[in-house]
Design a protein that fits this description.
The complex is a heterodimer of chains A (428) and B (143). Chain A is of the alpha/beta class and 428 residues long. Chain A has helices at residues 21-29, 57-69, 80-99, 114-129, 148-157, 177-181, 204-213, 233-236, 261-266, 301-317, 319-337, 366-375, 388-394, 410-426; strands at 45-46, 108-111, 134-139, 160-164, 185-192, 217-221, 240-244, 255-259, 277-280, 285-287, 343-346, 356-361, 378-379, 381-383, 399-403. Chain A has 14 helices and 15 strands. In chain B, helix 3 (66-79) runs parallel beside helix 6. The chains are: A alpha/beta (428), B alpha+beta (143).
């Protein structure tokens, strides 16, 4: 679809001094109208992209255009407008396929969000494949969306539920796998690529190898990776991978589950109803082919289309460039935050960290930190970030989290640090 | 708005020096609760006078943001000497007035955590009504 000029210039192939990175970020920021609206009289410093990203106008315009010119329900209409809608929806599926280097669009299932994608696996695969004597393994770093479904389905099926612990730096302790294995037959390992609360980039290749050696499947939550770095499901060699559209410049209401075709074909459906059937009679119902078997009901049509446009947008900029930009910012943030007295950063060193920095400040609750920062126009998240087991292991109840994206400026990190000095003053 | 308006001196004072902080041994009623949004925690214990209705003493323990802890501390001062029925029927506006700062919906939950927990404690001891938002939450867990 339409990609405005300007968005493609992002740091791409330019030798260091040719053009400063910050200049390119400014060009690209013009695509995000949210930054034109001041907060409490100050420019918005949006440091909460790990929760959800802002949207470029290309995505918003394209969705509006789609609704105005190409919208109808998908798949079974015989008229031209329905064909256009189906083309838009299925075209987005192909964009997702290419984005994660999947073998076939049959392996790409649209869901409502990453949570629904992970629940799909836990229910549709877990209910039929887990039982007494089996072990479902997650990590203590998981978002609740990749933790609670497995805990729940394990309980339902009588399987054991185990979680890989992590160390003081927020890095998984893989040596614990030896003990976990003693609890039964490991059938599934579920882990996130990048921790949403601490920013840890987890050793997924090691976990995939460990799982496959035991004939277990590997489920990867890529919610914090897909928006920020190149993804390749074939190189990862996992069995399922989930992510969500709204964290990667796309709309909310659209998520993706990629699954290995052989496994998807053997699985029972998740939601039942229209679209996912082949034939229905009083005696018997048979299932539609992949991926429709897993897409019951009218799907999020324009949202899928919008996600496709977001993928175009990100691809034109280049995920490598986005990753590089965020790494620079994260390194800068780690240095600057160290200047704030009483501040403790949690999580791993820069080399094994995504664009997420979680921290605590002595004597001030994260909610109060975030409240004061809000008045400075700096938007951060405070809380347990849907990772209560991780907080418990760290012995804290919450952190303040700043997270970065392709549009984040260095000076926004400066404003964060200034705001934190203000926080200390208010609570002195 | 200035910082003085949002974190009034009285809020910061109650946060840093909480009143009635602690646990009552052999309490007549107690309850604890969390705010799932930010992990604020409050535990409240209380004892009744000889009439079995008037709150003779009440204490809280907790950790969390300034709003949740200060509001609970303020609450302790308001409810001491009042009856269980009075406190159970106390409108949240009365506490919010004491807190006296503008609150967004998220921070409202922080400010009202202590009042909710106190009403749960009274409900358990005296069968007084639960606040609406706590209905059905008592004792629910993963099955």
């Amino acid at each position: 679809m339409v990609t405005r000029s300007g968005s493609g210039e992002y740091d791409r192939g330019l030798p260091g001094a040719a053009r400063s990175a910050s200049r390119d970020v400014r060009t690209l920021r013009a695509d995000f109208l949210a930054f034109e609206h001041p907060m409490h009289g100050k420019p918005l410093a949006y440091l909460d992209s790990a929760a959800s990203s802002q949207k470029p106008r290309q995505v918003l315009d394209a969705m509006r255009e789609f609704y105005e010119s190409s919208y109808a329900n998908v798949h079974r209409g015989v008229y031209e407008l329905a064909n256009r809608a189906t083309d838009g929806y299925e075209g987005a599926r192909e964009k997702v396929r290419a984005f994660i280097n999947a073998e076939s669009t049959r392996e790409v299932i649209f869901t409502r969000n990453a949570t629904e994608a992970l629940n799909l696996v836990a229910y549709a695969w877990g209910l039929d494949n887990l039982g007494s004597g089996d072990v479902a393994v997650v990590t203590e770093l998981e978002h609740h969306s990749n933790f609670v479904p497995w805990q729940f389905i394990a309980k339902r099926t009588g399987a054991e539920f185990a979680a890989i612990p992590f160390d003081a730096k927020g890095e998984l302790e893989l040596e614990a796998l030896a003990e976990i294995e003693k609890r039964g037959r490991v059938k599934v390992v579920a882990a996130n690529l990048i921790s949403n609360s601490l920013g840890t980039a987890n050793p997924i290749p090691e976990l995939v190898a460990w799982a496959h050696e035991r004939d277990a499947i590997m489920v990867v939550d890529a919610s914090q990776a897909a928006p920020h770095r190149p993804l390749d499901v074939r190189a990862l060699d996992c069995d399922f991978l989930a992510f969500t559209g709204h964290k990667m410049c796309g709309p909310s209401g659209i998520g993706v589950l990629w699954g290995r075709r052989e496994i998807l074909e053997r699985m029972s459906p998740f939601n039942l109803g229209g679209e996912m059937i082949r034939s229905v009679s009083l005696e018997r119902t048979t299932w539609n082919e992949l991926p429709h078997k897993f897409e019951a009901g009218t799907p999020p049509i324009a949202e899928a289309y919008g996600l496709g446009v977001a993928i175009d947008y990100l691809t034109a900029i280049g995920l490598e460039a986005v990753e590089r930009h965020e790494r620079e910012l994260t390194g800068y943030a780690l240095v600057r935050l160290a200047e704030v007295p009483g501040l403790t950063v949690v999580g791993p060193p820069l080399e094994r960290r995504g664009g997420i920095v979680s921290f605590t400040i002595d004597g001030v609750h994260p909610h109060d930190v975030a409240q004061v920062l809000d008045w400075e126009g700096v938007a951060v998240r405070a809380g347990h970030h849907c990772t209560e087991p991780a907080m418990r292991r760290l012995g804290i109840s919450a952190t303040t989290r700043a997270s970065f994206y392709l549009y984040t400026l260095r000076e926004e990190i400066d404003r964060l640090v200034e705001g934190l000095h203000q926080v200390r003053q208010v609570f002195a | 708005m200035t910082y003085d308006e949002l974190y009034r001196e009285v809020i910061l004072d109650h946060y840093k020096n909480p009143r009635s902080y602690g646990v009552i041994e052999d309490a007549d009623a107690q309850a604890e609760g969390q705010n799932p949004l930010c992990g604020d925690e409050v535990a409240i214990s209380l004892s009744f006078d000889g009439d079995g209705e008037t709150i003779a003493d009440v204490k809280f323990r907790g950790r969390g943001c300034a709003i949740s802890q200060a509001a609970t501390s303020l609450l302790m001062e308001i409810v001491k000497g009042r009856t269980a029925a009075e406190v159970a029927g106390m409108p949240k506006e009365q506490l919010l007035e004491e807190v006296g700062i503008p609150l967004t919906p998220v921070r409202l939950k922080c400010a009202l955590l202590g009042l909710g927990v106190l009403k749960v404690a009274l409900h358990r001891a005296k069968g007084t009504p639960l606040p609406e938002e706590w209905g059905g939450l008592d004792g629910l867990e993963l099955r």
